[in-house]
Amino acid sequence: MAEPAHPLHAEPLPWLLERTQSVVLDELHARLEAAGFDGLRVLRHGRVFRFIEAEGSRAQDLAIRTGLAKQTIAEVIEQLIALGYAERGPDPFDRRAKLVCLTERGIAAQRLASSALREIEGLWEERFGADEYRAFLSVLGTIASDPLTARAN
C-alpha cells in the first residue's frame, strides 16, 4: 500500500483550507439568516462590509483597504445598499464625494457576525487548547502574509 502524500492528514492542504473556510462561512450564514439578516454573503460582502467605518467610508478608500478593484467595490456597495445594510450620504469634507455608511441593520449584522466569529473561534480554542489554537492561527497568518511567490523574487 502506498504511503499517503500528506503524512499528518489524509487530505491535501488546499482542500483542508477550503473545507475549514466552508465550515466557518456556513455557520456564519446560518446565524445571520436565523437572526433575519438575509442575503448577506461573507465572502462577497464581508470583504468590504467589515471595512466601512462608523462615520462612513469613501469607495476609493475601501478599494485601497481591501485590495479589490474599484468596479468590484462599486458592485458590492450597490448590493449592500439594495439589501438594506448600507446607504450613501454626502461627504462633509468634499461636496463632490459620497460616503458609504452602514444602516442600523448593517451595524446589527456586523455586530452579530463579529460575535458569532468570536464564538466559533472560542469553541475551537476550547476544543484544541489555547496554546495549540494560537499556534494554528500564527502559522496560518504567516502563510497568508508570506506567499511562496514573494520569496521567489
TrEMBL record:
<dbReference type="GO" id="GO:0006950">
    <property type="term" value="P:response to stress"/>
</dbReference>
<dbReference type="InterPro" id="IPR036388">
    <property type="entry name" value="WH-like_DNA-bd_sf"/>
</dbReference>
<dbReference type="InterPro" id="IPR000835">
    <property type="entry name" value="HTH_MarR-typ"/>
</dbReference>
<protein>
    <submittedName>
        <fullName>MarR family transcriptional regulator</fullName>
    </submittedName>
</protein>
<dbReference type="InterPro" id="IPR039422">
    <property type="entry name" value="MarR/SlyA-like"/>
</dbReference>
<feature type="domain" description="HTH marR-type">
    <location>
        <begin position="1"/>
        <end position="145"/>
    </location>
</feature>
<dbReference type="Pfam" id="PF12802">
    <property type="entry name" value="MarR_2"/>
</dbReference>
<dbReference type="GO" id="GO:0003700">
    <property type="term" value="F:DNA-binding transcription factor activity"/>
</dbReference>
<dbReference type="InterPro" id="IPR036390">
    <property type="entry name" value="WH_DNA-bd_sf"/>
</dbReference>
